[in-house]
Design brief:
By secondary structure, the protein is mainly α. The chain contains 5 helices and no strands. Helix 2 runs antiparallel to helix 5 and helix 3 runs antiparallel to helix 4.
Length: 177
């Protein structure tokens, strides 16, 4: 119990956790958006009747990872803002109010993907007519794809902005050393 309450115990590097979470989330989003999904599309997977359930299974896992990344980022930002004496507050770094607002928007996007968009798209893509040999993508799927790509673009932009703020903090640290 003394090690948990000891003031000499080394604190967690929340800046590092935020930076790693941002980089992991951004790189995994880019991988799934520009490598995995186009590969599935061009291989003809979207014309298969079970693509809806396979896509939902893929995004079920990925959306939960996004939620963990968003939670780690927003927690790290709140902790960094709380310990202002340990970390110098600068106007343009991850301890700025902009970083916290961007992180809140990213969390909202991850929640939207997880609890609304992915389940709805998965339900629309499920083929209920297994005896029919052909499969067409439902017309309602087009607005859902537009909403997904719009939110995905906002998410990538937000992650990029947070990464830029974090890298500005690294420049400040490097110039002080």
């Amino acid at each position: 119990m003394n090690t948990l309450s000891s003031p000499n115990a080394k604190s967690t590097n929340w800046f590092g956790i935020v930076l790693v979470s941002i980089m992991f989330w951004l790189s995994s989003s880019l991988l799934i958006d520009f490598v995995i999904m186009p590969g599935l599309y061009f291989s003809g997977m979207m014309t298969q009747p079970d693509f809806g359930s396979a896509g939902y299974g893929l995004f079920w896992v990925f959306n939960r990872i996004e939620l963990v990344c968003a939670a780690a980022i927003i927690s790290g930002l709140l902790i960094a803002r709380h310990f202002r004496n340990d970390y110098e507050v600068i106007s343009s770094g991850i301890r700025s109010r902009w970083a916290l607002e961007i992180a809140a928007v990213l969390l909202a996007i991850a929640l939207t993907f997880t609890y609304w968009l992915s389940p709805t798209m998965g339900a629309l893509g499920i083929s209920l007519d297994l005896l029919n040999g052909s499969y067409t993508v439902p017309g309602e799927m087009t607005p859902m794809h537009l909403a997904y790509w719009g939110l995905e673009a906002l998410k990538l932009l937000g992650c990029g902005m947070l990464l830029k703020l974090a890298l500005q903090d690294l420049k400040v640290v490097d110039s002080e050393v």
